[in-house]
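Study this one:
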Amino acid sequence: MLRGTVTALLVLAAPGWCYTFLCHDPAVGINAQRHGGIEGRVARWAMTGPAETVITYRVDPRPPEGMDPLGPPEEIVAAVRAAFAAWEIPEASVRFEHAGLAEGTEAFDGLNIVTFRPRSTPPPGFEWAIFPVAYYAGDEVAAAALPGSASARVGTTLDCDLVVHTGGAFTLAENPQDDASVLSLRGILTHEIGHMLGLDHSPIGGSTMYAYATWGSGFGHPTLTADDRMGLASLYPARHFHALHGQVRGQVTDASGEPVSGAHVVAMDAHTGVVVAGAISGLAAEDELGRPDRFSLESGEYRIHLPPGRYRLLVEPIGHPAQGLPYLSGIHGSASGSGSYIDGGWAPVLDATPVRVRARGTTRRDVQIDRATPDLPVLDRRQSRILAGDHSRWTSPAAVARGTNVRVRCRLGQGEGERGSAELSFLGPGITVVDSGPGEDPRDLELALGISPVAPVGLRTLRLQAPAGVSYFPGFLEILPSPATESKPAAWHPKGVGLLAPNSAGQ
């Protein structure tokens, strides 16, 4: 039995695709970090019945010795159950059963336990963290380890425990945005359960599986974005999923015809500019049910499941998890950085011709990228802020309501020279850059944005134009319904929380 430990550390900003999938390589264990998550068999749980996967879990709410509990045991269990329930969606066949309380910690025992009593101490600096500890079927599985494990598909998840190191940082409050010293337990758990299910980080800001969250940012309603939902449904499709959805797929290649693995392909609504879902190129095999089965560094194939509609495709390089860039959009760093990208050194491509997706149908769209490009312009997402009154706050994404005006500070990565020539805009209607000017820091550019009362609601893409070229950030901004007339939308959700530690373009 090869043990793969998926360690999701809470690396936060200071104040499967892409949805991407975790992959298992029997030669090195779980190696989503070492190869950017695109080498090996896709990690997922086995079906437990006809077209259904049921995962049973238990909760040990006891605090570590000498520490106060987060709250009453029943409230802790309620927060855990709510986090699991967020992933029970109509598009997917995965379901969860809470089997009650347990006294235990991480172990390969066939039990899936959420425990607040870690067996080991966390690494320095990570006294507050949630570690999914997972075990996968390998080439040599001990038949006696778990019933049926000897014949399990390589990469099948056999056991996963969620180990909570509270460190005094977590709260049971669902919306702790007035306290910048705490994190929502429910929101962070929702993200980590995504890893438990087989999803890796998403480069789309605002998705539940995005790699960063913020202290005190809230996570009031941890529901999933379309990106998260399509990723989960790709691994565990419901019976009716393919009847109601279609797919766009194709090859990402360079001018010589060589495949480009690890490219981020994003589908945006062609009329509204709203980001729907994305995928990572590198798909090498699918199983008999059409689910992704294996990824390879030698493949440039991508596939995105989508609701019927017309979409524009954005193809961009993304950061390499092993280099400290956990599936971050290419706008985060310079393409010349050694090893910074899974397959970098090329500019993003925004396809001018929309693709039409029909239910039950497959639309083919190949994309060619140009490797002979200069460094990409850079935006430091973690140092960008919504400016309000005498203070600033950072959310992922920046969330603003229809019919409002807001100032946003964007920190560019190349200093004052780039700031003076940079132009920022948003794809799709309803967002106007009213004014722009320098901030206090020589790298900062402040924008005054006007949000139309009829702006399309959802995640939107920032476009950064500079002399070096063009970069994009899908999911930089989220348009919310007007609070005076509409309720808070389901897209108000928790963000991803961490960096997966080692084992474990242009128009």
